[in-house]
Amino acid sequence: AQTVTQSQPEMSVQEAETVTLSCTYDTSESDYYLFWYKQPPSRQMILVIRQEAYKQQNATENRFSVNFQKAAKSFSLKISDSQLGDAAMYFCAYRSATGGYNKLIFGAGTRLAVHP
Amino acid sequence: KAGVTQTPRYLIKTRGQQVTLSCSPISGHRSVSWYQQTPGQGLQFLFEYFSETQRNKGNFPGRFSGRQFSNSRSEMNVSTLELGDSALYLCASSPEGPGTFSSYNSPLHFGNGTRLTVT
Q1: Which residues of chain B lie closer than 8 angstroms to A109, CB-CB?
Q2: pLDDT lower than 50: segments of chain B
Q3: What element of type H or E holds B26?
Q4: How many beta-carbon contacts under 8 Å exist across A and B?
Q5: Which residue from A88, A66, A65, A86 is spatially nearest to A15, judged by alpha carbons?
Q6: Coil, helix or strand for A39?
Q7: pLDDT digits over A68-111, tens only?
Q8: Is the distance from CB of A107 to CB of A8 less than 8 angstroms?
Q9: Which residues contact B93 (CB under 8 A, 6 or more apart)?
Q10: What chain A residue is nearest to B105 in terms of C-alpha separation?
């Protein structure tokens, strides 16, 4: 069974600085998808960025980028120029390329605080 | 376009009762999945529906059930409530159906959830 581990329960960053959130996963599959979701106090899960395992190039989305290391099964999220609105819970998620296509396996989450 | 709508937003029930939660997906989305979020267990997959059929189910007891209607709206039901069922229940929709390449890469669009408290 696949597992996702986020080893940092809490992180903090100064506004305008850069922060990296860690995520590792365990799988025997070769084809899968990885996601970072953000959950603000409104409770709605919002997609931040996604990565296809078959792509070597790291995904970027404006201030958000990932460092995807397939061999190491690592998928970290880098937030550049942090803003107060980035404060939220961040979840790393894994989706298999087979089986239940809506089944995401989530990590425990990292709470990010942004200080002015 | 309206997002995923979950009702009610908050719910308080007593042990032994049953509860029904509702989810309306984004217009045009045909797939709906449900997740339970608790401080202890985190986010866990409950089940997913497409074309009114349950396509996959997570590791939850039979007290948890769901269904999807022809308009893609979905409901989940929890019978004989236990204190441990207190959680945030999240619904997510996706435009894609199973078996398509893009379906796995399609992001899920989540609602704001229903906070269920069992006393």
Answers
A1: 42
A2: none
A3: none
A4: 69
A5: A86
A6: strand
A7: 999 999 999 999 999 999 999 999 999 988 765 678 999 999 99
A8: no
A9: B4, B23, B25, B26, B29, B31, B32, B33, B72, B108, B109
A10: A33
